[in-house]
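Notebook entry, structure prediction.
Reason for the run: the old model in the group folder had no record of what sequence produced it. Starting over properly, with the input documented here first.
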Amino acid sequence: MIERIALALAVALLADPAAQAAPLGKSITVGYLQLVNDPRYDERPGPGDTSIEPPRPVAGAEMAIGEVNLAAAASGHSFSLAKEEADDVAGLVQRIDALAKDGAHWFLVDAPDAALADLAKAVSGRDVLLLNISAPGDALRGAACQKGLVDVIPSRAMLADALAQLLVARKWPEVLVLRGPLPEDKATTAAFEHAAKRFGLKIVATRDFLLSNDPREREKDNVALLTGDADYDVVFVADAEGEFARALPYRTIRPRPVIGATGLLATAWSWTWDRYGAPQVSGRFEHATGRHMEATDWAAWLAVRALGQAVERSGASDTAGVDAYLLGPELELDGAKGPPLSFRAWDHQLRQPILLATSDAIIAEAPLPGFLHATNVLDTLGYDQPETQCHF
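New structure, fully documented this time:
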C-alpha cells in the first residue's frame, strides 16, 4: 500500500506545478490534432489496378465521446472533441495554445514519429497532456520521451516482441529478414532485431528489397533471389508501403510462414478479435463508419475512454489530479482485450496485450503462456523499466 501511494505521488509530481491550479470544469474539451499532409495517409497502390487510402482514426475518438458522455451524465460532466489540423508542427503548437486558452488540457495527436517528437518537445512545460494514438516510434518511449506525452498505441518494440514470443513458442527460431527502403522499414527491422536478441532467435540474413522499374535494380525485388540460398523457419518482412509484402506469401523459395507486414501481423486491434466484448466495440464502430476498426481507431477510442474514466473515478477538482490518476497505479482500463490496462510509470506507454492476426483470424494473443514477469506479464512486451532510456 505504501509503495502504491509513493508511486501515485511520484506521478503527480511529473506534472508542471501550474497544472495543479487548473480547475476541472463540467464541460471538458478534448483536442484532436492531425497534420494536413501526413504521408502515412497518402493513397498507395493496391491489388491489381486498385488503390488504398488508409483511413484517419478520428472516428474512434468520436465514438468514444458519445460513450463517455453517457457514463458521465450522472456526475454532470460533458465531453466534446475539438478537431484541428495544421500543415506543420508549428501550426499544431498554435492550435494547442489556442485551445488551451479556452481551457483544453488533453490532446489526442495523430502524427508521425518525428513530428510528434518535435511537438512534444515544443510544448514541454505547458499545462497540456498529449496522447499519442498513431506513432509507434521506440524513441518516443525512450531517448525522446517527454513527461507530457502519453503513448496509447503500442510501440514497435511491443509489436516485435509479440511476434518473437510466437516464434519461440512455435519453435521457429531461425528468421530471414527482408527489409524495405523507407525509414519506417529500417526502424521496424531494428525493433525486430532487438526482439530476436531478447528472446534468443537467430536472424540468418537481412536482405534489402526495392520495387523499381529500373532494369538495373531488377534483382532487388526478385523473391526467388531474396529468399533463396538460406535456411530459415520463417520470413519477417518490413514494408511500410505494403506493395512488396502483399505478393510475398507462397512465393518464397522455401515453404515457410511470412510475418511482419503481411501474413501474420502484430497489432493493437483486429476486427476478427472476438473476446472480452470486442465484437460489440467493433460492431458499434462498423455501424457508425461502414468500415472495420483499425489499430489507430482503437487507440483513439481508448484514449478518450481513459480520460473519461480518470475524470469520473479520480474525484479530482483539477487537471493535475486527473493526470495523477490516469498515469497512476489505480487506473484499471478496459480495452476489450482481457486484462486491465494501465500506463507504465517509466515511459507513459500503455501496457496492453498484442493481437497476432491474419487478415481474417486471430492466431494468438501476446504475452503468450510461459513468458513471465516479476510484476506484470504485460511488461514482457516492449522496453521494461531496467531497459528504458526514458528519463523524465
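Summary: The two ends are 24 Å apart (CA to CA).
The old model has been moved to the deprecated folder.
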